[in-house]
Amino acid sequence: MSDLLNEKQVAEQYNIAPGTLRRWRWAGRGFPYQVFGRPKGTKHGGIVRYDVAEIEEYRAKNRKL
User: Fold this and answer.
1) 15 φ, ψ to 5°?
2) H/E stretch holding 32
3) How far is CA 12 from CA 6, 16, 17, 32, 43, in A?
4) Per-residue b/e over 16-27, b at no fewer than 16 CB within 10 Å?
5) Is the pTM of this model over 0.90?
């Protein structure tokens, strides 16, 4: 199983404010994430988790030179 991090862990590990991560999710940009336990047909609720491998892949593809 992949390593999953919560919002606070991602913020600390990648030096990004938690509010920035929330804004990115709202805007549909930034690090890929998964939501667990969200009721079907709603956009509210659930637990947000980030997969470390997916974050690293995203960073590699979006790295500015």
Assistant:
1) 55, 50
2) none
3) 10, 7, 8, 17, 26
4) eeeeebeeeeee
5) no
Residue 39's pLDDT is 82
Name residue 16's amino acid: I
According to DSSP, the β-strands at 34-36 and 4-5 are unpaired
Rounded to a whole number, what is the distance in angstroms from the first to the last CA of the chain?
A: 32
Tell me the Ramachandran region of residue 21: left when phi exceeds 0, alpha when psi lies from -120 to 50, beta otherwise.
alpha
Give the three-class secondary structure for 17: coil
SS3 for 18? helix
